[in-house]
Amino acid sequence: MATDRDTVLEAAVGVLSRRPTAHLDEIARAAGISRATLHRLFPGREALIREVGLLGLHRFAAALDTAAVEDGDAEAALRRLVDAAVPDAALCAFLAGENQLYDDDSVNDLWEVQIARLHALFLRGQQQGAFRIELSAAWLSEAFFDLVAGVGWAIQDGRLAPRDAAFSLAELFLGGALRRPDAATPPPTAPSARTPETDIP
Question: How far apart are CA 56 and CA 40, in angstroms?
Answer without folding.
Answer: 22
